[in-house]
Design a protein that fits this description.
This protein is an alpha/beta fold. It folds into 2 domains: 148 residues, Rossmann fold; 88 residues, SIR2/SIRT2 'Small Domain', CATH 3.30.1600. The protein is 35% helix and 17% strand. It is built from 10 helices and 9 strands. The strands form 2 sheets. Strands 3-2-1-7-8-9 form a 6-stranded parallel β-sheet, with helices on both faces. Strand 2, helix 7 and strand 3 form a beta-alpha-beta unit. Helix 1 crosses helix 10 and helix 6 packs parallel to helix 10. It is elongated and about 60 Å long. The chain starts with 8 loop residues before the first helix and ends with a helix. The mean pLDDT is 91. The protein binds nicotinamide-adenine-dinucleotide and zinc ion (ZN). Zinc ion binds next to loops.
């Protein structure tokens, strides 16, 4: 493909060899892996919250917090609805598909901060969605769940058809705890360990994202970062692809193409 970035051939070969030999691989992903699906990242260039007009005069972290949701669910919902609308119509991209395909030859565990559900949609089976999933709604009163393909026009806050309780997306709002079941799976996955760790499209702002990469790197487990920009992980990892997710994964999985 002629738009392929010019990666160092030795870098590609080395990582391709590590990949071919690896049994258990972790893909730790963030908003950047979905950027090529047209989803805005969190901050930085094209960041979702940079462009969003916050007319309530509050930082977005406050609006999208558990506290605000309890006090004024309609306000939090107004922005959740906007976020969902920004994602509408987007689909998983080549990077999600390549990761899903690797599970036919390796044991693959995906740990993602993304709430878009794209890894599962692309077919990955072992996916830990540590921040939940936006289109999975949950009644705050009776606990009933419902998956949505997208949010239709709805009165905000939306209410449960069964009990009239306020619905919320099954995501971790700012200031909230991580979901226990996902944390248990995450801990188990780390205990079992990996022999190759990828960090793709994340600024690794959370310790539970940063630490597994840092710990692996310290333990001599090969670590690879794919990100066009530098992050706190960049100086720790053994290998770095300064590019988009799709281009680097295509090069690594088909080094002679
Ligand atoms: P982030 O926005 O802090 O960082 C995104 C990173 O992706 C940046 O380092 C950027 O350089 C990189 N990037 C941009 N384009 C890329 C590409 N084509 N390929 C590879 N990397 C690319 O994202 P984060 O670290 O995931 O933290 C964001 C938080 O916001 C998380 O809590 C997440 O739950 C939430 N969020 C989720 C989504 C989603 O579900 N798709 C989108 C935005 C934000
Ligand atoms: Zn209910």
């Amino acid at each position: 493909m002629n738009e392929r970035p010019a990666f160092e051939p030795a870098l590609v070969q080395e990582v391709a060899t590590l990949l071919a030999r690896a049994q258990r691989i972790a893909f730790i992903t963030g908003a950047g892996i979905s950027a090529e699906s047209g989803l805005p990242t969190y901050r930085g260039v094209g960041g979702l919250y940079n462009d969003m007009t916050i007319d309530e005069g509050l930082p977005i972290e406050d609006i999208l917090s558990g506290d605000t949701f309890r006090r004024d669910p309609a306000l939090t919902w107004k922005y959740l609805f906007e976020i969902e609308r920004a994602c509408r119509g987007a689909r998983p991209n080549a990077a999600h598909a390549i990761i899903a395909d690797l599970q036919h030859r390796h044991e693959v565990c995906v740990i993602t901060q993304n709430v878009d559900g794209f890894h599962v949609e692309a077919g990955s089976r072992d996916v830990i969605e540590i921040h939940g999933r936006l289109r999975e709604l949950l009644c705050t009163q009776c606990g009933k769940r419902r998956s949505h393909r997208h949010f239709d026009a709805m009165d905000l806050p939306p209410r449960c058809m069964a009990c009239g309780g306020i619905l919320r997306p099954d995501v971790v709002l700012f200031g909230e705890m991580l979901p226990l079941r996902a944390v248990a799976r995450y801990e188990l996955a780390l205990q079992r360990g990996f022999d190759l760790v990828f960090a793709i499209g994340t600024t690794a702002g959370f310790p539970y994202i940063y630490e597994p990469v840092a710990t692996s790197a310290r333990a001599g487990v090969p670590t690879i970062e794919i990100n066009p920009d530098l992050t706190p992980l960049s100086s720790l990892v053994a290998y770095r692809f300064a590019s988009g997710a799709g281009a680097a994964l295509r090069a690594i999985t088909a080094p002679d193409a």
